[in-house]
Design brief:
By secondary structure, the protein is an alpha/beta fold. It contains 10 helices and 9 strands. The strands form 3 sheets. It has a 4-stranded parallel sheet with strand order 5-4-1-6, with helices on both faces. Strands 7-8-9 form a 3-stranded mixed sheet, covered by helices on one side. The chain has a two-stranded antiparallel ribbon with strand order 2-3. Helix 2 crosses helix 9 and helix 7 crosses helix 10. The longest helix is centred in the middle third of the chain and has 23 residues. It is globular, with a radius of gyration of 19 Å.
């Protein structure tokens, strides 16, 4: 674990809300930041409340990250923790760090972004726990296809989380679970596995196309999910407004099968 401390005003810490975010990325080579990073900066800059920010990322020692958040007055404590979301042990260690270090209720938990590509994956593959192993065993996989399928599984997990949080009792405020598609933002690093000319095209040419979404608009969409008190659990929002999930994600029988599969893989813990 690696950490960085921000402002140390104890009075400010005591009355702060707890904000936890994962995957926020700052790309100095492009002079831009990831969507989560931009949304966090805007959220903290506009917040009317003091903040304890716990940030999980692959580069916790990057001074540009700590310097950015340390310059925001509302952030009274900054805890930057090493986190690799593709590594289950790293993810569990991050979660354990939060539970052990911060007894107060989390006010905002910002995870990875959703994508409308999950709808195409649902129609193309129609995955279920009984077929997912065969689907994953097929080769070769293209990054876009793998990404879309991962987003579909995440949307199933989203609905499972909505169901689980609906059972929470005793909290000061009932947890609200919202899915966000920030839009198609070419320069967020999703094409880092492609050739250099594809990366150049996506970073410098594609952002000018009318069907893409700017970093600013995408960040504002994510920030809306963090701020809008009128949103309810299960809402799915995009830069164009509210949207619906793939119909497969609303299938209660399939959702139960996915929940059991996730439990069997040790990814989900269903508490009594």
């Amino acid at each position: 674990m690696s950490g960085a401390q921000g402002h140390s005003d104890q009075g400010g810490i005591d009355d702060s809300i707890l904000v936890v975010a994962t995957g926020a990325r700052l790309c100095q080579c492009l002079g831009s930041s990831g969507l989560g990073f931009r949304a966090l900066v805007d959220f903290a800059g506009q917040s009317k409340e003091n903040i304890i920010l716990v940030l999980g990322c692959r580069t916790p020692t990057n001074p540009a990250v700590s310097n950015t958040f340390n310059n925001i007055p509302r952030i009274k404590k900054l805890d930057i923790v090493s986190l690799d979301l593709v590594n289950l042990d790293s993810t569990r260690a991050f979660a354990s760090h939060i539970l052990q270090s911060y007894p107060k209720q989390i006010s905002v938990l910002l995870l990875c972004g959703g994508s409308t590509l999950h709808k195409g994956a649902a129609q193309t593959y129609r995955p279920s726990p009984s077929t997912i192993e065969d689907i994953l065993a097929s080769t070769p996989w293209k990054p876009k296809e793998a990404y879309a399928l991962s987003k579909l599984v995440q949307m199933h997990i989203f609905q499972i989380t909505v169901d689980r949080f609906a059972k929470v009792t005793g909290a000061k405020k009932q947890p609200v679970v919202v899915a966000v598609c920030p839009g198609f933002v070419p320069q967020t690093g999703l094409i880092r596995e492609y050739s250099w000319w594809i990366r150049f095209l996506m970073n410098y040419i594609m952002p000018m196309m009318p069907f893409t979404t700017s970093l600013e608009t995408a960040g504002e969409t994510i920030m809306r999910a963090m701020q809008d008190q009128n949103l309810t659990s299960g809402d799915y929002i995009t830069p164009r407004g509210s949207d619906s999930l793939a119909s497969e994600c609303m299938d209660l029988t399939l959702r139960s099968e996915w929940r059991d599969w996730l439990v069997s893989k040790g990814v989900w813990v269903e508490e009594e």
